[in-house]
Amino acid sequence: MTRKMKTRFAGMASLCLVAGVPGGASATEGYFAMAYGTAQRGVAGAGIAYSQDAMSAAINPASVATVGRELTLGTEIFSPRREFTVSGGAPGLLPDGTTKSGRDWFIVPNAAFNMPLANGAVVNFAAYGNGGMNTAYRDVPNANCGPASGVFCGGTAGVDLTQLFLSVGYAQKTGAFSWGVAPTVAVQRFSAKGLAPFGALSVDPANLSDRGHDMSYGIGLRAGFQYEINPQLTIGVSGQTKFKMSKFKKYAGLFENGGEFDIPATLGVGLAFKPRSDITLMLDYQRIFYSNVPAVANSTTATSPFGSKGGSGFGWDDVDVVRIGAEWQQSPDMTWRAGYAHATNPVGPEDVTFNVLAPGIVKHHLSFGGTKRLNDRDKLDFSLAYVVPQTVSGPEMTPGGPTGNTVKLRMEQFSVSVGWTRKF
C-alpha cells in the first residue's frame, strides 16, 4: 500500500471514529445495519448482485470491480424508539407499566474510496458500522426494589454496543465474472449500567456493570462474486467470516467465557434483473449466524452464571433477511429508489425479560430514496427509511422462575440519510 493510499484510508477511519460510527445504533436486523450507505438504504439494503457506488463493497466486495475511481461520504440521522411494558400486577423484577428508553437520536457516518489499478482491478477502502444493542433507561421508581430503584434495581440502566469496520478490498472483473475480497479490521466499544444487582449470578461481579466503556479488536474476511448470466440478469453471492474478537475485560462477569463477544458470520445471495435499460429490480437473501456467538445466543435463563463458559446470554436466534429493491433512472440526472426488507425476529418470548436491554426485534423495513446528479463529477444521494413497530411478549423471568407477569417489548425506527459521491 502506497503512502498516499494509507493517508486516504487513515483519513476516512479518523472521520468515522470522530463522528462515532455508528453512534450506538442503525436501522437494524438484530444489531446488524439494514444498509451501510445512502444509496443502499434507498433499496432497503439490497444489492448483492448490483453495483451502485464505492460503498457497495460493504454489501459485496465484488460490487466495486466496475465502479471506477470514486469517493463516497454519507451520514444517517437515525431514531430508534424502544420501550417495554409489564402487566400482571404480581411481584417481580421489572417496574409495572410502560418504561421508555432515552437516547432517541444518533448520527451514523460512512465513507468509502475506490481506486483503479493498472491491471484493471480496483482497491477499495471502506469504513462503516453496526450497532443495535443500545438502551438508556432512567433511574425509574420500581416497587420491586425496596429502597432501591431502576429497571433492574440498580439505578440508571442500559447497554451501548458500537462496531466499526475498516476494510481494504481488492476486486476485479474478467468477462462476465467479478470477484472481490476484503480483509477487515473490527473495533468494538461496549458499556453496561444498572446490572449490579445481578452480581450474585456472576462469576466476576466486579466486572459485570458500571465499568465505563471497554474496547475489543479483531479481524475477519469479507468476500463475494457476481456473475452476469446475460445482459438482463446478474447473480451475486457474498459473506463474511466470524470475527474472533479480543475479550471485553471490564465485562468479564457479564459476557460468556470471561468477556467474549465475537461478531457472527453472514452469508447472502442476490439477483439483479433489468427488465429494461432504465429499471433494475433486486432480490436478496441473507442469513446472520447469531447462534454461533454464545454471548448473544445462549439462553437468558441458562443455569451457568454470567461470565462463565456456557453462561447466560441474550437468547438470540439466527436472523434471515429478505430484501426487495427497485431503482429507476428517470433521466441522466435523476434516479429514484424504493425497497422493502423483512427480517426474522431473533428474540423469543422466553427471553424478553433480559432483552429489555437489547430489543433488536424489528421485522419490516420500508425505504425510499434517490440520486440527483449535480454535474459530471458530483452526485447527491438521499434516502428515508421507516421500520414498522414490532412487539414481542413473554413471561417475566427471574432467577426464581416466572412471576406470572407479562413483558412486552416494542421497537420502532426512523432514519434520514444524505450522501455525496465524487467521480475522479
Automatic annotation (TrEMBL):
Segment forming the signal sequence: 1-27
Matches recorded under SUPFAM superfamilies: Porins
Subcellular location: Cell outer membrane
Membrane topology note: Multi-pass membrane protein
Keywords: Cell outer membrane, Membrane, Signal, Transmembrane, Transmembrane beta strand
Chief location bin: membrane
Top-rank lineage group of the source organism: Bacteria
Family as reported in the entry's similarity comment: Belongs to the OmpP1/FadL family.
Protein name: OmpP1/FadL family transporter
Organism this protein belongs to: Thioclava arctica
